[in-house]
């Protein structure tokens, strides 16, 4: 009987609990338990209306930037172009700045928070403002996660995110435009690198780059583009002297620069000189059109000290096995001509044929191997004087559009164990792999039965 009453009691409790869950918990807004209070913005600012910002940083340096006609300029402590990206970071942080938490609405003193005086001061004006809005920033909280802050016209102390310290604690150099050399990248048509008595000349001929002028050796367009990119992206890492005319050039190694890079773009030019070492990873430099002496990264100097051979095309041939349409090969006093053509009865498939001195169909796999081995020859080094003797094979390759093919001629000469590749119209020669040359020559002899 007692057990029956206990069971009935348990049923009543379970029913009551179920009712509570259904009528109370199930009706509750689940978001109500997890929602955090919306943070209040420190400033009510319409986006894009800030037009003047002045920062006094933690070391009492003052930097001011101002906007005119949508262009930001540094106006203090000197007049210079501003770094738009860095200024935009400051502006957007002010526009979106939120109070993480209010610490004290009316503290007796703000000194314990590092706000008397403030460690960092950010003052700004929006369009139409007669007076500045001022944010004062003090110390980090004991946990380091936030910063104490207040407005200059209100007593309350609140918290802002500690990650904003780097955003607002700016030096004048941080907000100035830092391009080491200014030029229009797409307009560049010549480059000269002068280091010591060495001169590396690069000139654009149509869409191609040449070394030593339009009639010189082929330049590797990717290598030249990389050089232009390095110069276009080079940034000042420090300011060593505001006016080179009042400094001693020898102090910075700019009386006898390690290298002077001259960038030509039509009738205009830009020149960058790099002097002695500033520290282990930076060197003093100067854009010769400006008085500043500044630091640049060592990687830029390394790029500008490259030799002409570093910019030469390493591929001996421009054709590839899949772009070749015809070839003349002079060897052993005989010229062999090869062409792609359709076999009798074929309507689409083209095969390689020897058309002179006798006509015959070639073994496709072997001829493709010959074409590929030749086209893969790469310069291991370059020499100023080419061989004039030895075993020689001269290849004139036709490639590209069969109706108007491009043509290139290369003579390969083997003297002893050294093989040189001499391109028609270029001085000097490339030294190539002897093993690859021997393999290609062997394939050619098998295909033609040449002696």
Task: Write up what this structure looks like.
By secondary structure, this protein is an alpha+beta fold. 22% of the residues lie in helices and 36% in strands. The chain has nine helices and 27 strands. The strands form three sheets. The protein has a nine-stranded antiparallel β-sheet with strand order 4-3-2-1-6-7-8-9-5, covered by helices on one side. The protein has a nine-stranded antiparallel β-sheet with strand order 13-12-11-10-15-16-17-18-14. Strand 8 and strand 9 form a beta hairpin. Helix 8 runs antiparallel to helix 9. The termini are far apart. Residues 16-34 have low confidence and may be disordered.
SSE topology sketch:
Layout: H1 2-25, H2 30-34, E1 50-56, E2 62-68, E3 71-76, E4 80-81, H3 84-96, E5 101-104, E6 120-126, E7 133-140, E8 146-151, E9 157-161, H4 165-168, H5 172-175, E10 190-195, E11 198-205, E12 208-211, E13 217-218, H6 221-233, E14 238-241, E15 259-265, E16 268-279, E17 282-287, E18 293-297, H7 298-304, E19 324-331, E20 334-342, E21 350-356, E22 360-361, H8 364-375, E23 381-383, E24 391-399, E25 406-415, E26 418-423, E27 429-432, H9 434-448
Antiparallel strand pairs: 1-2, 1-6, 2-3, 3-4, 5-9, 6-7, 7-8, 8-9, 10-11, 10-15, 11-12, 12-13, 14-18, 15-16, 16-17, 17-18, 19-20, 19-24, 20-21, 21-22, 23-27, 24-25, 25-26, 26-27
Helix pairs in contact: 8-9
């Amino acid at each position: 009987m007692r057990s029956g009453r206990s069971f009935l009691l348990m049923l009543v409790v379970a029913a009551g609990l179920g009712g509570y869950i259904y009528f109370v918990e199930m009706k509750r807004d689940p978001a109500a338990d997890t929602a955090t209070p919306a943070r209040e913005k420190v400033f009510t600012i319409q986006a894009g209306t800030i037009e003047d910002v002045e920062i006094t940083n933690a070391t009492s340096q003052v930097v001011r930037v101002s906007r005119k006609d949508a262009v930001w300029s540094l106006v203090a402590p000197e007049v210079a172009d501003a770094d738009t990206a860095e200024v935009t970071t400051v502006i957007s942080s002010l526009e979106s700045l939120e109070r993480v938490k209010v610490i004290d609405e009316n503290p007796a003193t703000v000194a314990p928070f590092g706000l008397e005086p403030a460690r960092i001061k950010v003052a700004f004006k929006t369009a139409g403002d007669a007076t500045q809005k001022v944010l004062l920033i003090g110390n980090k909280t004991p946990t380091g996660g936030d910063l104490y802050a207040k407005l200059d016209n209100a007593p309350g102390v609140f918290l802002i995110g500690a990650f904003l310290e780097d955003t607002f604690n700016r030096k004048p150099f941080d907000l100035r435009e830092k391009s080491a050399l200014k030029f229009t990248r797409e307009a560049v048509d010549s480059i000269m690198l002068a280091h010591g008595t060495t001169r590396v000349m690069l000139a654009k001929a149509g869409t191609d780059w040449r070394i030593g002028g339009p009639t010189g050796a082929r330049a590797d367009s990717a290598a030249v583009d990389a050089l232009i990119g390095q110069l276009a992206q080079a940034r000042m890492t420090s300011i060593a002297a505001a006016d080179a005319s009042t400094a001693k050039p020898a102090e910075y190694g700019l009386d006898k620069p390690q290298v002077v890079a001259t960038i030509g773009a039509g009738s205009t030019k830009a020149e960058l000189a790099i002097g002695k070492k500033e520290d282990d990873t930076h060197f003093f430099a100067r854009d010769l059109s400006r008085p500043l002496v500044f630091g640049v990264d060592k990687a830029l100097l390394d790029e500008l000290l490259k030799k002409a051979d570093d910019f030469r095309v390493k591929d001996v041939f421009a054709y590839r096995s899949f772009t070749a349409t015809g070839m003349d090969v002079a060897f052993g006093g005989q010229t062999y001509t090869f062409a792609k053509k359709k076999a009798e009865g074929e309507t689409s498939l083209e095969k390689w044929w020897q058309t002179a001195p006798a006509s015959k169909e070639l073994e496709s796999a072997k001829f493709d191997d010959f074409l590929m081995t030749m086209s893969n020859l790469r310069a291991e080094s370059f020499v100023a004087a080419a061989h004039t003797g030895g075993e020689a094979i001269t290849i004139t390759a036709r490639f590209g559009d069969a109706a108007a093919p491009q043509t290139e001629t290369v003579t390969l000469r083997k003297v002893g164990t050294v093989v040189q590749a001499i391109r028609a119209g270029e001085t000097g020669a490339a030294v190539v792999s002897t093993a690859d040359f021997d393999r290609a020559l062997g394939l050619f002899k098998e295909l033609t039965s040449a002696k």
